[in-house]
Amino acid sequence: MSEISVIIPCFNGAATLARALDSCLAQPEATRILVVDDASTDASASIVRVYALRDARVRLLQMPGNAGPARARNWAALNTVAPLLAFLDADDEYLPGALAAARAHLDAHPHEAVIRLDVDYAGFPARLTRHPQFAEFAAVLSNTVPSSLVIRRNVLLALGGFPTDELFRRYGGEDGALSWALREIFGQRRLIDAKRVRMHWHTGIHAERFLNIQLGYTEADPVANDATLRASRAWLDNARASVQQLRALQIAPDALNTPTR
How confident is the model at residue 261 (pLDDT cuts 50, 70, 90)? Predict the structure, then answer.
């Protein structure tokens, strides 16, 4: 059975971090829970230290300065050797059995690179959830948000991790770029038999902005759209080239067993 490391990037997430951690600790499949404090100015790091004293699976990593969630996730991915990585935002939570289902699927399908979990959208305004197209675009979000992602570590590293282009920090969209690459290069399925991740609404989250635009309540910024689309295409091209180069390598059968001096 494959081990899973859960990675939680956190910037000033003290208000919701305990809920996220509790939901991780309830998952027996989570062999390591790495919280990356992205230069928070609140009590986030202290909360993690308390949890680490209670459960050895919890570990605090600290960024030297605020670098954004993509770099935080990538740093944690380099600080674990678990074959499977799961990502949870500090304001989301896993539902019971989430990681068991993900691990069972990937263990049963060794040629699949990734599996997505279906998302429950808690507390979202009725004007969004009652819209006739809400289910359609909620499914799009479930295929892109990091909290739905369970991926083989070697696949993420082959892609270069989460995109870190500064355009994404400015406008958002790195999650969509990664999802695009996974879909185009490896294919990605989603377990739709049950909701396994809960996303809690609060003002200003990306999901709210995305749904407001897609459901026609606000207009997209054409400059931001064009910039993120170009950056996403460039990142996809680079990711595809990296994977193709890896596939083309010829590794001697005994290369990993050859002693070095």
Answer: very low
Write down the pTM of the prediction: 0.94
Tokens of 58: 């919890």
What residues contact 73, with CB distance under 8 A and at least 6 apart? 7, 9, 36, 87, 146, 161, 162
Dist CA 74 CA 9 (whole Å): 10
The label of the residue with tokens 């500064």 reads 166
User: Are 106 and 205 a contacting pair, CB within 8 Å?
Assistant: no
What are the φ/ψ torsions at residue 186 (nearest 5 degrees)? Answer: -115, -25
User: What are the tens digits of pLDDT across the range 241-257?
Assistant: 999 999 999 777 665 56
H-state helical runs in 12-68: 14-25, 44-54
Domain 4-246, CATH among 2.102.10.10, 3.100.10.20, 3.90.550.10, 3.40.50.720: 3.90.550.10
Q: How many CA atoms lie within 13 A of 83 on its CB side?
A: 10
**DSSP result, 176-200:** HHHHHHHHHHT--EEEEEEEEEEEE
**pLDDT number for residue 169:** 87
CA 157 – CA 41 distance, rounded (Å): 30
Domain locations in the chain as residue ranges = 4-246
Q: What mean pLDDT is predicted for residues 11-17? A: 97
Query: What is the CB-side half-sphere exposure of residue 98 using CA atoms within 13 A?
Result: 30
